[in-house]
Amino acid sequence: MLKRKSQAFLEMASEEAAVTMVNYYTPATPYLHGQPVYIQYSNYKELKTDNLPNQRAQAALQAVNAMQSGSLAITNAFADEGVLLPGQGSVLRIIVENLFYPVTLEVLYEVFSKFGSVLKIIIFTKNNQFQALLQYADPMNAYYAKMALNGQSIYTGCCTLHIDFSKLTSLTVKYNNDKSRDFTRLDLPFGDCQPSLEPSIAAAFGKKSSLLGLPVPAVPGALGSLIVTTPEASGHMIIPGVPDVPGNSVLLVSNLNPEAITPHGLFILFGVYGDVHRVKIMFKNKENALVQMADATQAQLAISHLNGQRVYGRVLHATFSKHQAVQLPREGQEDHGLTKDYTNSPLHRFKKPGSKNFQNIFPPSATLHLSNIPPSVTVDDLKNLFESTGSTVKAFKFFQKDCKMALIQLGSVEEAVHALIELHNHDLGENHHLRVSFSKATI
Length: 443
Fold this sequence. Notes:
Blueprint: H1 15-25, E1 31-32, E2 35-36, H2 55-69, H3 74-80, E3 91-97, H4 105-112, E4 118-126, E5 129-136, H5 139-149, E6 153-155, E7 158-165, E8 180-182, H6 199-205, H7 231-234, E9 250-254, H8 263-270, E10 276-281, E11 289-293, H9 296-306, E12 310-311, E13 314-315, E14 317-320, E15 339-341, E16 367-371, H10 379-387, E17 393-398, E18 406-410, H11 413-423, E19 427-429, E20 432-433, E21 435-438
Antiparallel strand pairs: 1-2, 3-5, 3-7, 4-5, 4-8, 6-7, 9-11, 9-14, 10-11, 10-15, 12-13, 16-18, 16-21, 17-18, 19-20
């Protein structure tokens, strides 16, 4: 920190993280203690912190490194500084105040999973307050999340989080639905009625606890920030599923690998987050492309999920284009197949109003959700199919009650991105074409 200049340097864990942060805060200036903060790239490639006089700053830096590596070596550094360490508890109790927008189980998962693996969530109300219990895989994840998120707002100016450690050591979830979720158990039933809290939980929070029913909106993905900007703050509505959003629907996509990317590949990848109408790879600079989505909301959603994502060895950059539409080549104009019109494609995921696809939009992940699998296709068939794309299959699981669907975990997020591009709509025979999307669950 350069206090005299009112400036600071911040080194992120990766170039992708830095790109995501700068692009997110460019249209929506963040405020700290009522003051606007302006964020831009520095000329420095890394920060030297070896000679910091402030030992607490060193401890904080070690904490960040520990969080990245999963190491618990930081405990000694904090102990030396007199900082209280968490107990063994990995369960957080969360109260959300000023509930102006609905906060769903999915929203909580999105926010808290940035700090580690979330195992279980239960939401309910007590004393007219929206509350939740959330269990991490590791107590240190719970500690970092509490330190970072307590007092923060999910949306600008509302839905403020108040977080404490719960006395419970573990949560028991009987149903996977809108009120409770065990992300380690895909086989749990939905439940015909509202699930009741376990006796131990009811005792901890009072016998009158009841579960709050909230509508499930589509939520933004990896935005690089806890705070989700409202339209008043940024001029752009970035909450998907809201109609009549002003703005551009054409994206400028840059830093592509010209040896690997194709219009069809961009159509499939961006099609996970909206219906792609047209794609144009620039003839003179094939590292750049224009992608026209169905509307501005879908364009914003694609940016929030794909900007900073590594695709074919390069970090993809996505932002709004100055163009309002992608022009098709004139008749007789040589295009080399770089411009494609997908307006009437049968592969659009969101053409049906109310489609379940709207509720299953997740950031790129190493685990893929597969559907439309014919009965004759085996585990080995699917493993071999994905390995043929160069992927490493780490795990595979058919859904217990529906063998038309499965989860497959690959070696990395980038591998999963490539596999999705290559295998979505792959012909499995028997008039079945494979459907591939990113999963929020893991195996």
